[in-house]
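idk why but the lab printer keeps eating my pages so im just putting this in chat instead. protein + zinc ion:
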Amino acid sequence: MFDALRNWRRRRVLAASAIPDALWRDALETLPFLAICTEDELARLRDLCVLFLNAKGIVGARGHVVTPRQRVLIAQQACVLILNLDLALYDGFENIVVYPDEFIPGWEWEDEAGVVHRNDEPLAGEAMPRGPVILSWPDVEAASDWHASGMNLVVHEFAHKIDMATGDANGCPPLPPDMPAAEWTATLAAAFDHFAARVHRGEHTAIDPYAAESPGEFFAVLSEVFFSDPSLLVVDYPRVYAQFARFYRQDPAARAALLLDPI
Ligand SMILES: [Zn+2]
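predcted complex ->
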């Protein structure tokens, strides 16, 4: 009964809120990393984007005006992570807030000695636990060219959201029953220690050194690499790639190889 109701609602939203063809294609062409998706995957991504945009508000802050193209671009990147998972992973928050530039979060926290600290570092993005995802539009735009920027801000922040579905952003997202948590944790921890050691000894890494900040950032940054430059992750951390392929139920490196070398 519940599924029937859910499917009925889903069909109603899809029929009422379709994304116009020209807008969909225009946004898609801005994101070369999605070119490796098949037609079937893109059709499912489009449906998912419609449902996502129906469920979430994308609102401008500090005078930023969110255009229809910006809404679709954010949705395409947020939804590629859950293409073979469930939109319910993004339950528990309402809005994506878009700033005209980097922003200062200004949140405060108290350390063990009772001293209150304030974060005044400008940020390009932030995923608040049980709160909104905040994005700086110029950084979203810069990230559409992976080879120039080496980052994908939207994928990064929504990977944090998926991670937070089980509590803190600690690099342990909600694994399906057929994935042993011990194997995930051991694989990610070994790769994190290895990567952090490379960064700390000053080695230049193709993967953003910010991944060495914490296991939560490691998961978010490597998720960016998994979707935007999958062969880099296969070469650098193949075991992490294999875990991510099982978790996200996608094999972007195989898709990319097929595109380079069509049968
Ligand atoms: Zn982060």
